[in-house]
Amino acid sequence: MKVAFFSTKSYDRQSFDHYLPESSHDFTYFEPKLDHNTVALAKGFDAICTFVNDHLDEKTLKKLSKLGVNTIVLRCAGYNQVDLKTAAELGFKICRVPAYSPEAVAEHALALLMTLSRKTHKAYNRVRENNYSLEGLSGFNINGKTAGVIGTGAIGRAFCKIMLGMGCKVLAYDPYENEELTSLGVEYLALEELLASSDIISLHCPLTPDTFHLISQKTLAQMKDGVIIINTSRGALIETKAVIKALKSKKVGNLGIDVYEQEEDLFFQNRSEEILQDETIARLMTFTNVLITGHQAFLTNEALAQIATTTLENLDELEAGKKLTNEVVWKEE
Ligand code: NAI
Q1: Per-residue model confidence (pLDDT) at position 99
Q2: How far does the centroid of ligand 1 lie from the alpha carbon of residue 126, in Å?
Q3: Domain that holds residue 24
Q4: Is 156's C-beta closer than 6 angstroms to any atom of ligand 1?
Q5: Does residue 25 lie in a domain region?
Q6: Ligand 1 contact via 78 beta carbon (within 6 Å)
Q7: Would 141 be classed as within a structural domain?
Q8: What secondary structure does DSSP assign to 263-329, as a single string?
Q9: CA distance 212 to 20
Q10: 8, 181, 244, 283: which could form a disulfide with 186 (CB 3.0–4.6 Å)?
């Protein structure tokens, strides 16, 4: 298939170029993000390949359909960026990469947590400046804490196991209980109970209308004082303004985020020469107990290899008209 690849970064190109010679597909890499302005680049292609911040809204999908392109391969797990209803009405076929490396994301959640718990981000800078003072570097043990995991799919499961290995009591909330986890000692609770009992809360559920602003003024009030919140899932799970208030009042003791509500116009670019216009992230950056990374939890060699191979397999199945292993289908709520 002739595939137009949007939002290309050097690491995408490297991993896909490694596997393309063994496949029958032909890729053209475009740097721009897909939206209704850039969709014309897809003209003459059989399929498009997109990532988390490409816009697959109604306007873009309709234009894409007019160009005769009705196949989309998402090189990510989440699909909240796709207007699935419109896509279904227009007859699009969509596939994704459901689990490229759950461990990559779970390990990044741990990295955020441990950087905050031991202030290694501060220590790194101090030592480089020949400053070996330990003042202000007191941390806390993860061992013995209660970790609440919201969403125990592939990534949440991997994170639960890491937390069990760290010697934590692990609580979980998910509409579907996982038997393997319960056999390992993870305790499923109602959301309110998890919020009230956890020292650490890590978000691993998808962004849906149900989970939008799951962390809000109301749910923050139900948490322990000084709670640590980690979000490697999707930015809009957290109402950022509410969490800023909670950081100011010390209700939230630490916040580690790899995703941000307004990341779409910010992340995945070098903006170091620009004036930061986003007042909310600017405020977040002023807290010494907040750690932000720019949606990099997935970025390991192993995950990139899996993304490339699964995407190519998805294209093989689409081209052959086979049953689609990783199809994304619209379900009426
Ligand atoms: P998954 O589909 O395997 O698991 C999601 C789990 O969330 C399921 O068990 C589901 O039952 C549960 N869930 C659904 N609604 C829920 C709710 N209202 N409350 C609690 N649990 C709920 O997905 P996976 O692979 O574990 O990924 C989780 C999320 O991580 C993705 O949706 C994506 O947003 C994010 N992600 C972030 C990456 C990054 O680089 N930062 C990379 C990959 C995924």
Answers
A1: 85
A2: 36
A3: 2-100+301-320
A4: yes
A5: yes
A6: yes
A7: yes
A8: GGGTTTS--TTSPP--HHHHHHHT-TTEEE--S-TT-SHHHHHHHHHHHHHHHHHHHHTPPPTTB--
A9: 37
A10: 181
Per-residue pLDDT of 279-288, as tens digits, reads 999 999 999 9
Supply the DSSP symbol for 80: T
**Which residues of the chain are modeled with pLDDT < 50?**
none
Give 276's Cβ-side CA count (13 Å radius): 14
Domain count within the chain: 2
Q: Are residues 209 and 220 in the same domain?
A: yes
For position 333, what pLDDT does the model report? 64
- 263, 283, 313, 333: the catalytic one is 263
pTM of the model: 0.91
Closest atom of ligand 1 to CA, residue 297: 40
Rounded to the nearest whole angstrom, what is the distance from the C-alpha of residue 40 to the centroid of ligand 1?
Answer: 32
Would residue 25 show up in a list of annotated catalytic residues for this protein? no
The answer to whether residue 295 is catalytic is yes
Nearest CA to ligand 1 atom 32: 206
The residue whose CB lies within 8 Å of the most ligand 1 atoms, and thus the one to mutate among 80, 108, 193, 205, is: 205
Q: What is the pLDDT of residue 100?
A: 87
Q: Is the CB of residue 273 less than 8 Å from the CB of residue 312?
A: no
Position in ligand 1 atom list of the atom nearest CA 232:
41
Residues, the chain: 333
Asked if 185 and 76 sit in the same domain, the reply is no
Is the beta carbon of 96 within 6 A of some atom in ligand 1?
A: no
126 carries an active-site annotation? no
